[in-house]
């Protein structure tokens, strides 16, 4: 499936690639979705434990949203934002931390250094570093290090895939306690981005594209995985989700893949606020198991 996916876009013109692989080209006034969440974000930011450092570089920090629930260690959910590895910050997604805390979940929203200040090497390494820090330290905030679930949107879904595959090169300490992951509207093979306008910031080359192509790098961490994408997304972008779901399901590690009706690349995050939506249902299901 991965090779087939590459063949589908390899012959596209630059204009076609921008349409299929640059989400802002396919959704009119895409900023309206973020603007509509501004009030929710402002309210949520007052609830957080802010700017906790997980590393020593700029933007290696995170926010923690604590539910009012008291008692034993709480389930933990970590959200990794998108922005094509080059934009957005954790504060733009505070509404997710607040929404999940209302379900008794200790939520963590992470920052990471962005391109072009760093390359994709630095972005991936930071996401992996953050998860290891959370596993080591979250109990001091009331979270259960043996019940950590993940979600990521767009390039954040790519970083979740990196975490699930991070032992592929035998690097770093092993992760334990992951109860599952929800990957939302992701890009898993970065190669198409090398041929569109975003690469002015990303500075992708063949080496980086191959190293971080999670349509070929194996998934090493065995846990439940849900892949969700918007039914209104371009076919080239949607094909990456379908290909990742097939690739990550090798062996006895099934992956559920959901095309979410009526959703585009930006509207889909509102599902964190919607009971019984595809995303919120998937997160709550992973937390309850």
Question: Could you characterize the architecture of this molecule?
Answer:
- This protein has an eight-stranded mixed sheet, with helices on both faces.
- The relative contact order is 0.16.
- The protein contains eleven helices and eight strands.
- The mean pLDDT is 93.
- It starts with a helix and ends with a helix.
- Helix 5 links the parallel strand 3 and strand 4.
- Helix 1 packs antiparallel against helix 10 and helix 6 crosses helix 7.
- The chain has 289 residues and is of the alpha/beta class.
- It has one domain: Alpha/Beta hydrolase fold, catalytic domain (Rossmann fold), CATH 3.40.50.
Overview in brief:
By secondary structure, the chain is of the alpha/beta class. The protein has a single domain (2-288), classed as Alpha/Beta hydrolase fold, catalytic domain (Rossmann fold).
